[in-house]
Known about the structure:
Helices cover 34% and strands 22% of the residues. By secondary structure, it is an alpha/beta fold. The protein has 2 domains: 14-77, Orthogonal Bundle (Arc Repressor Mutant, subunit A), CATH 1.10.10; 80-323, D-Maltodextrin-Binding Protein, domain 2. Strands 6, 7, 8, 9, 10, 11, 12, 13, 14 and 15 form a 10-stranded mixed beta sheet that branches. Helix 1 crosses helix 2 and helix 4 runs antiparallel to helix 13 (294-303).
Amino acid sequence: MVEKRKPGTAGAVPVSNSPVTALADQESLMTVPEVARFLRVQNRTVYDLVRTQRIPFCRIGGKLLFPRAMVQRWIVETTDYPGHHQSYDLPLVIAGSHEPLLEWAVRESNSSIALIVEGSLAGINRLAQGGAIAAGTHLVDSGAGDYNLSAVFQQVPVGDIVVIQWAWRQQGLIVAPDNPLGLAGIGDIQSSRARLVMRQQGSGSNALLEHMLAEADIDPATLDCLPHAERTQYDLGACISDDRADVGLGIETVARRFRLGFVPLRRERFDLVVQRWAYFEPPFQALLALTRSPEFAEQAALLGGYDVSDCGRVTYNPRPLQF
Length: 323
């Protein structure tokens, strides 16, 4: 059963060693005057909020301190708008595209988040319908030349979400070891009559393949496609490794995982579309905390094909807050 969460009642926050809740660096803790300036109220209003335990705070050495991230989250949680109070009863799930580095990070962060792998578009739809706190997506916008935002704007109430960059990845042709058919581009799939394994409709890889076939003026009906589409990156890699197909479009880390050949074709951006309130919750903050660790960078390098230098950067935020 997937865990459901509701944010706890705002009040006194115990001091914790957790990197998510307390964040020991001084910049993450605000004083009474700093909170007053942040909220644009008088100091006495802040003391009233503390006295009635309506704002997150802690006492350290007799001094009142306020974890900045929790105050920001408290602002979001106490903001009223249509559907606001229903939005918190969501499964603690990231839905959408299969992403190996995200899979590793969710597990290693001990965030209690679950993953539902179903493709980029299905993940965005699940998020829009209240079935997840976030969706992983890498849908190319053939018109604008960008990633993800066009599909997001069509499906999700944009005022309720933020879009976080996860990674840039290398997409290309995954082929048998040493590339025996000598495939160098999309056009070679047709000319060589290579057996092509596809991803399911609505997946980011399938959308990119259709986009590249259109660019090359190739009719998909002329290709030797397997009748069954694979649902994950690893399923596609296993299909080629088992010699059930000659080629498929996927990411570099899959080729490395199955010791296959790889022909890079396109650099793509993978984003996380996150429920705005969920961004500030401890589970998602635990995931983000891990992305700032040396272990995360090491794992990205080990998997291969990733650029995580801007991981966590906000690429879309319609109602700015100090993240």
